[in-house]
């Protein structure tokens, strides 16, 4: 605005501009408008420049990383980590799950392509398939862990109605859970990386695959979990 006014005076009134007046006008406008603009100062240079203009800098809030750890279950429990995904939501979908014992050893895992579905459908399907495998193998001390709070909430809801395609499988899943010693918990997405990678493998499969040994794609993540290496979540 100050530059525009000075230019007009020079063009229409033939008045030579005063650099000092222009700078003072610019600084006044900056001081006036700064409190009404979003943003923050980052670094010493930004703060020094703003202070020189008479603006009180708002420092950038530092995001502190939080450690996320995967914990093994207690004897005689097995932990089942599940995950589901949908590229586009809805879009190409898949799910997967990993069973591990109290030492963090890989007991088995599964993955499957689900076609065109939502992420919520995939999360539920991962739970259904995982519980069915546990029930089939006689693993009746099951600790289910997922990064989907909405899917976990459905397990304790008396009013939840699953998608039509999952009505019967979901009822069977609940019946199998009632026949087990069952526990479920939430884990942040960063700590569920092994199950997430297993679900991604399901996108390339045309049928349900059971793994007796860990796929090479998830072996490094399993090793990190066993050794207690943390994942980091910035929030």
TrEMBL record:
CDD domains: RNase_H_like. This is RNase H type-1 domain-containing protein. Residues 81-200 form the RNase H type-1 domain. SUPFAM superfamilies: Ribonuclease H-like. GO terms for molecular function: nucleic acid binding; RNA-DNA hybrid ribonuclease activity. Transmembrane segments: none annotated. It comes from Rubus argutus (Southern blackberry). The lineage of its organism: Eukaryota, Viridiplantae, Streptophyta, Embryophyta, Tracheophyta. It comes from the Eukaryota.
């Amino acid at each position: 605005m100050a530059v525009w006014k000075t230019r007009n005076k020079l063009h229409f009134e033939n008045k030579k501009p005063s650099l000092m007046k222009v700078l003072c006008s610019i600084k006044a406008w900056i001081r006036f408008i700064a409190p009404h603009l979003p943003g923050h100062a980052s670094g010493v240079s930004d703060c020094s420049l703003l202070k020189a203009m008479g603006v009180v800098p708002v420092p950038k809030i530092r995001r502190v990383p939080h450690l996320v750890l995967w914990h093994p279950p207690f004897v005689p429990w097995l932990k089942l980590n599940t995950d589901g995904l949908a590229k586009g939501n809805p879009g190409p979908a898949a799910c997967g799950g990993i069973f591990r014992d109290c030492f963090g050893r890989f007991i088995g895992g599964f993955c499957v392509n689900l076609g065109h579905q939502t992420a919520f459908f995939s999360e539920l399907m991962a739970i259904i398939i995982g519980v069915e495998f546990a029930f089939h193998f006689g693993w009746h001390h099951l600790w289910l862990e997922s990064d989907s709070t909405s899917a976990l909430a459905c397990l304790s809801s008396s009013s939840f109605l699953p998608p039509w395609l999952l009505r019967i499988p979901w009822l069977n899943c609940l019946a199998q859970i009632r026949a087990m010693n069952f526990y479920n918990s939430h884990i942040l997405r960063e700590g569920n990386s092994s199950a997430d990678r297993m679900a991604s493998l399901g996108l390339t499969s045309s049928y349900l695959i059971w793994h007796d040994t860990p796929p090479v794609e998830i072996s490094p993540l399993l090793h990190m979990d066993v050794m207690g290496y943390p994942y980091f979540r910035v929030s």
